[in-house]
Amino acid sequence: MRQRPTLLAAIAVLGATVACGGPADGRIELTIGTFTEFGYEQLLTEYEAAHPNIKIVHNKTGQGGPYHQALFTKLGAGSGLADVQAVEEGYLADVLARPALFHNLEQIGPATADRWLDWKYQQAKAKDGSLIGYGTDIGPLAMCYRKDLFAAAGLPSEPEAVKPLFASWQSFFAAGDRFVAKSGGKAWFDSAAQIFNAMHNQLDTGYFDRQDRLTVEQNTAIRQNWDQVTAAAARGQSAKLVAFSNEWNSGFKSGAFATKTCPAWMLGVIKEQAGPDNAGKWAVTDAFPGGGGNWGGSFLTVPKQSKHPKEAAELAAWLTAPEQQVKAFLKAGTFPSQVKALTAQELLGWTDAYFGGVRSGELFATQARKVGKAQYKGPGDGKIQENASTPALQTVEQGASAQEGWQRFVDSAKKLAK
């Protein structure tokens, strides 16, 4: 979610997750590798206090491509991974394709199958039926927007009143045309890639079918989404910003765009980047074009490299239990994926003054239940999004035709899928 470190730095940190030996006092040493902010620091201290025979070494680094490239390097080498290793959903398919290198948590861990939202639980099941990861957070989608920019353009601005604008992608892009015309050419959304990715994740079939065959050229829905997004960008709706770049960050503060696809964790990004001067200008509503979706979320795995797999599985199960998920949410804003956690009063009563006092916990719990079955993601899915569709859409925003960008996307996807 944040800016990414260099690959070498990520590999160095990930490699540090393996300890040379156990602690001198005879305790079992467990290592856990995570990225960005899981909200685990206090929880790990709590776990150690309740398990005096356990010492935990937590290694945290940046998120995204470099972290996972380092993970797969260590996985291929047969050494270097933590006892508990976090995996982001965009790279989970590459893990599920190698189930023999990870423990089946249904065999070595506590019984937990009934804990999660079904779509989250099913995401971590390999084709052989093994459960490779315990689900941590999720990113149910809502829509964030600038109330002041909406009002200035003559659009409704209160959360209930804006819902019809976000009822479908057709209504979303139609509202964008109205906004661009009435605002003197201001941008409706931040980048074509951000919109395209949200639309793509709602499709029944994504970049791969369940036989791991690339579908980009055959899946007409992908091309339809491409055409809609690039046409809207051509009509001036895109701010043409690269997500998580410095320019994108500052765009929240300067009002460079009026709407933002908004998974639960995005509220923290907006508050940080828009700053206190924009408190009350940003709002969030429990509506999303196409009905809902998910962006983000991770899993805790136990690689076969672990010397203490049973203890590692117990730690992973505890960290992802409802009570700990709620604590992590209150600490770091990581939204829970556990069914019981979604009914916790601490979550449902959570309000966010920055967004006008919205009951954001309740709002995103509602959005989480709108997500249907998880889209199947084949090996290399995350790489295609990061290194094929996103840069190809950026070339269109920089002047290439929609067809030229599409061909670049297709060609890059084919190379990555080999």
Architecture overview:
There is one protein chain. Residues 1-20 have low confidence and may be disordered. This protein is an alpha+beta fold. The longest helix has 17 residues, at 381-397. Helices cover 43% and strands 13% of the residues. It folds into two domains: 7-139 and 295-351, 3-Layer(aba) Sandwich (D-Maltodextrin-Binding Protein, domain 2), CATH 3.40.190.10; 140-294 and 373-417, D-Maltodextrin-Binding Protein, domain 2 (3-Layer(aba) Sandwich), CATH 3.40.190. It is globular, with a radius of gyration of 21 Å. Helix 9 packs antiparallel against helix 10 (220-234), helix 9 packs antiparallel against helix 17 (381-397) and helix 17 (381-397) runs antiparallel to helix 18 (402-417). Strands 1, 2, 3, 4, 5, 6, 7 and 8 form an eight-stranded mixed sheet that branches. The protein has 18 helices and eight strands. 49% of the residues are buried. It holds the Pfam family SBP_bac_8. Residues 1-21 form the signal peptide.
